[in-house]
Design a protein that fits this description.
By secondary structure, the protein is an all-alpha fold. It has a domain of about 55 residues. The radius of gyration is 20 Å and the shape is flat.
Amino acid sequence: MNNAQTRSTPLNIIEKAVLVIVFILMIIGIAAAWINKDWFLQKYVVEDGFIEDITLIPLAVITITCITYLLRFARKKNIWFFLVYLAFALGSFFILGEEISWGQRIFNFKTTAYFEEHNTQAEFQLDPNRGPLVSMKVDFCHGNC
């Protein structure tokens, strides 16, 4: 291997800023969990709170980036490129949609009767439905997740 192959590219300013912000938020979260668990649970990591809302940013960036790469490079690359980027685009879009309950609170539409009955949060999303996956999560976490 020559020296050019082993060198990594330095981080640009945006990457450095993202790493610093994530590190600071992580330290705040760890300290808050130790110092004031009630504030941590009721303000910092609460449903539709600050931390949950900022997770939307990377999910949107991943979705847009993957779709852009698919449109730009899919015909020039092999099938694996297409499948991997398609999986990431669809997966991140699905998680993004679930995080915002598919726009239910943004567009103020009512939860259908099916989701009212089968969804533990009474929201328009598949994630917290009662079923085998939720049962496994509750069993694994002993109800503390």
